[in-house]
Amino acid sequence: MDRVDLAKKKHLPRILATLQQLGIYKDRLEIQFLGIKSQQLLQLWVINTGDTSFQLYQQFPLTAFSGTLGPKEKEGDLQIPEGNYFINRFNPKSKYHLSLGINYPNEEDLLLGRTGSDIFIHGGSTSKGCLAIGDEAIEIVYLLALMAKDNGQKEIPVQIVP
Fold it and tell me: What are the pLDDT digits (tens) for 35-62?
């Protein structure tokens, strides 16, 4: 059984129960992330397709933090980016358990001359510019992102603020 299947077995009943409590239908689920660097938190927000108000699903403390407040400027600076991004890849075989890739650098970053690559929301407890949230948390986050993607959400927003 692969990591995603194990995560489903472990977390799916609780995820579905929480969505139901929030009035969110699993087949209408859309999500977005808010990373708050100063609080070392990743928030996951949920909404039904067609609705207008997101609800906080859960906050996940970062298990590791690198760099300081302020944007990522270049490859290897250990900074977590700041800006508006989206999930651009799912990695079920990540070195950090499971991971969701973030499209850093985006167009704005490129216009500002910023460089770097391989920024992820991932499990584990190390960071070199990523949002590390631990293995249990990434399982929940990954499953919700996968559900949203399977429902047709083309872009999953990730806003990272100081």
Answer: 999 999 999 999 999 999 999 999 999 9
Residue 144, by phi and psi: left (phi above 0), alpha (psi -120 to 50) or beta?
alpha
* Sign of torsion over alpha carbons 18, 160, 62, 122: positive
Tell me the residue type at 63.
T
| Amino acid letter for position 136 | E
Q: What is the pTM of this model?
A: 0.96
Buried b (16+ CB within 10 A) or exposed e, 16-29: eebbeeeebebeeb
- On the question of a cis peptide bond just before residue 162, with omega within 30 degrees of 0, the verdict is no
- What does each C-alpha distance from 23 to 29, 47, 56, 98 come to in angstroms? 10, 9, 12, 27
Running DSSP on this structure, what letter comes out for residue 52? S
Number of other residues whose CB lies within 10 A of the CB of residue 45: 17
Q: Work out the end-to-end distance of the chain between its first and last CA atoms, rounded to an integer number of angstroms.
A: 39
